[in-house]
Every structure is written in structure tokens, then in C-alpha cells.
Write a structure and sequence with these properties.
Number of strands: 2
Distance between the termini: 31 Å
Strand order of the largest sheet: 1-2
Strand content: under 5%
Helix content: 40-55%
Shape: globular
Largest sheet: 2 strands, antiparallel
Order of helices and strands: EEHHHHHH
Number of helices: 6
């Protein structure tokens, strides 16, 4: 099985989403920009060319330039991005629906919060998004 076929499940996957009237290059861009406490830094993060660069930019901010969030708030921010990602991109929704009822796991070797070696929040949010875009029975 080609691991690349699942890249679309990653928050780093480049696909435009629009939230609160602002367009982001990926779910990761939205998530990382929401860490900034001011609009200037949110724009700077949002303009990163990749999700990885957006993450690096957010991580480079000094603590006083960051919004402190609880784990629940972090999950809610990513949930909002994931639901938008799959609702606004029908091609990705179709791919997500093709996973049927499979358990989705984030194969991160070192992330105990987002990855399957811990709480698997990325996998859980992908499954929630699948439910959100699923045709109602």
C-alpha cells in the first residue's frame, strides 16, 4: 500500500480552506496561525508556503506573542480546520468517505498528543470529519 495515498489526511496537506472570511493554505496554517496573539503574526504564519513552515513560524514566536490554549481548545481549533477542509474540498471528502468505517491513525513516531502512539487526535478528528461529510442516512 502506498503511504502517499493517505497524505490528504494530514493537516499539512495543501488545500485551501476558508474560515471566518480568511483563506488558509491548509488546516495546519489555520491551526498554527490561531496560536498568535496578534493579527500581524497570524498573517505572517498564514503566508507560509507549507504547513511545516507555518509550524516553524508559530514555534519561533516568543511566549508573550502566543495565546495559551488548553488541550481541549487545541483540539477544537484543529476540529474546526478539519471539518472545513473536508466540507470545502469535495474531492478530499470523497477520498475520506472511501475509508468507510476504518479506524484512522496518525502515524507520528513522536507525537503523543496528535499521533497514534498517544491520543491520536488527528485520527479521531479525521473520523469526525468523515462523519460530518457523510451523506445522512
Amino acid at each position: 500500500m502506498d503511504a502517499g495515498q493517505w497524505d490528504f489526511l494530514s493537516p499539512m496537506y495543501i488545500c485551501k480552506i476558508n474560515l471566518d472570511g480568511v483563506t488558509y493554505r491548509s488546516a495546519e496554517h489555520y491551526y498554527q496561525s490561531m496560536k498568535a496573539s496578534d493579527e500581524k503574526n497570524r498573517i505572517w504564519i498564514r503566508e507560509a508556503s507549507t504547513g511545516y513552515e507555518a509550524k516553524e513560524r508559530a514555534h519561533s514566536l516568543k511566549s508573550e506573542a502566543l495565546v495559551k490554549k488548553s488541550p481541549e481548545q487545541k483540539v477544537e481549533t484543529m476540529r474546526k480546520a478539519f471539518i472545513a477542509k473536508f466540507k470545502q474540498n469535495p474531492d478530499l471528502a470523497e477520498k475520506l468517505l472511501s475509508t468507510k468505517d476504518a479506524e484512522l491513525l496518525e502515524d507520528s513516531p513522536d507525537d503523543a498528543f496528535w499521533g497514534a502512539k498517544g491520543e491520536n487526535w488527528i485520527g479521531k478528528l479525521a473520523m469526525e470529519a468523515r462523519e460530518a461529510v457523510s451523506p445522512k442516512k
